[in-house]
């Protein structure tokens, strides 16, 4: 089947994958983010929730090239507009979530039973908008922010290789994939893009398969190479998470799964807010009692409040960012059927912390 003939419900899988990934990361933080939660099935299952971040990276590797392809991307004409739309789409919710963290920390410090230090040095705060926190020996306000820094590095990387990667010649695409995988061997800390490049390559391979530029056999070969490079640059679990992410967005899910569409629609907001909102519930529970039933109830309440906060935030803040990003002049996309929840309709998010 040609890409133009793909059913719109086929692309709902991108939104489903986002929702599953965001829920997984929240699950991880509420059950394994500290030692407060009792051992049991929830904690055992939640231990693997951090793989949701790897799913986000694979989604980015698929959706960003797809977005550029649909725009009939020209490097000189469209690069600045593309980056501007990405910044407008993602930065306002991110910055407002930073402000929310500072405000909630201040309010928490006013509680009589509060113990701890929530002071924030303004010098370190100013580096958050530029995602340079690790390079000034500071700590992120929210532990999930580090992955946003990786995402923005990937946007620049994708623009650099776009003129070659979007070619109709399979040999050039193979060269880009090979060089990208080789770059993952560059010695680097987790603050740079290089160790995560194999995860983005998995998304690349899915995109090239969508374009019918690669056969299924060649896709399998490149995925095997990306899997092995991912083990080398990160670890086995990250590599498995990457394949799970690709499966989530490539398998033919049935359309109209409302609950997954809902979570996909609030995935960015949920990713940004679940730690500052939900962790306050779990911290309070830890001070009250170590009873397993109370901790389980606290986990459920933390998830519910985080989802509620994410829904409100997505409607009040994120939706405005989406509309604003769409207001910029752009070429009419190629005639490829795609669900309204595609790359330009939802955020690309992100890692374990």
Task: Measure the end-to-end span.
Answer: 40 Å
Largest sheet: none
Name the shape in a single word. globular
* Domain module tally: 1
Number of H- or I-type helical stretches = 13
Overall mean pLDDT: 86
Architecture overview:
With 353 residues, the chain is mainly alpha-helical. The chain has one domain. The chain is built from 13 helices and no strands. Helix 1 packs parallel to helix 12, helix 3 crosses helix 10 (236-250) and helix 4 runs antiparallel to helix 13. The longest helix is centred in the N-terminal third of the chain and has 35 residues, at 75-109. It starts with 11 loop residues before the first helix and ends in a 27-residue tail after the last helix. Residues 1-5 and 335-353 have low confidence and may be disordered.
Provide a short characterization of the protein structure.
By secondary structure, the chain is an all-alpha fold.
Task: Give the secondary structure arrangement, pairings included.
Elements: H1 12-32, H2 41-46, H3 51-70, H4 75-109, H5 122-125, H6 145-165, H7 170-183, H8 197-210, H9 216-233, H10 236-250, H11 258-265, H12 267-288, H13 292-326
List keywords for this structure.
353 residues; mainly alpha; 13 helices; 66% helix; disordered C terminus
């Amino acid at each position: 089947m040609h890409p133009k003939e793909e059913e719109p419900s086929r692309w709902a899988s991108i939104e489903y994958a986002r929702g599953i990934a965001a829920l997984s990361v929240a699950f991880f933080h509420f059950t394994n983010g500290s030692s407060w939660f009792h051992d049991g099935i929830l904690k055992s299952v939640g231990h693997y929730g951090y793989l949701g971040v790897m799913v986000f990276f694979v989604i980015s590797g698929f959706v960003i090239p797809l977005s550029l392809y649909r725009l009939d991307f020209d490097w000189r004409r469209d690069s600045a507009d593309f980056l501007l739309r990405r910044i407008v789409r993602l930065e306002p919710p991110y910055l407002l979530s930073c402000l929310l963290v500072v405000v909630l920390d201040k309010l928490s410090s006013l509680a009589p039973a509060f113990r701890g230090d929530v002071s924030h040095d303004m010098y370190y705060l100013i580096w958050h908008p530029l995602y340079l926190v690790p390079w000034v020996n500071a700590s992120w306000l929210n532990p999930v922010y580090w992955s946003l820094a990786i995402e923005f590095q990937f946007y620049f990387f994708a623009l650099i290789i776009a003129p070659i990667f979007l070619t109709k010649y399979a040999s050039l695409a193979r060269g880009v994939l090979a060089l990208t995988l080789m770059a993952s061997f560059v010695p680097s800390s987790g603050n740079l893009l290089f160790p995560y490049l194999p995860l983005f390559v998995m998304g690349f391979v899915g995109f090239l398969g969508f374009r019918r530029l690669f056969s299924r056999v060649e896709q399998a070969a490149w995925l095997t190479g990306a899997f092995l490079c991912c083990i080398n640059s990160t670890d086995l679990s990250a590599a498995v998470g990457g394949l799970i992410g690709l499966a989530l967005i490539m398998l033919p899910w049935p359309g109209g799964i409302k609950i997954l569409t809902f979570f996909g629609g609030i995935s960015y907001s949920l990713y940004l807010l679940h730690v500052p909102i939900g962790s306050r519930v779990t911290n309070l529970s830890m001070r009250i009692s170590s009873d397993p039933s109370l901790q389980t109830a606290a986990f459920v309440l933390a998830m519910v409040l985080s989802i509620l906060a994410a829904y409100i935030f997505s409607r009040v803040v994120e939706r405005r960012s989406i509309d604003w990003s769409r207001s910029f002049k752009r070429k009419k996309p190629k005639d490829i059927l795609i669900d309204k929840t595609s790359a330009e309709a939802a955020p690309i998010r992100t890692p374990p912390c």
